[in-house]
Sequence to fold (76 residues):
Amino acid sequence: MIQYVPGYKTRNDEIIARLRSISGASAPLDPELAIKKKAAEIAIAMALLHGGDWRVQIDHQEGFLVVARRGRSKSQ
Fold:
């Protein structure tokens, strides 16, 4: 017998998720995940604009975020 296991803690959580889905709104992101996503978007935009391979370095302890081109090999 297959038993249904709810994917939400409460019925209210399920209703809110359904309303978000219907309205096209996404679920709220974890702030660290949102920062990673936005930094990756910037790295992609820099690669499209300037070419090359770009990296992201984030240090939440120091409040530090870098988007930089990866080092080029000496043969280039």
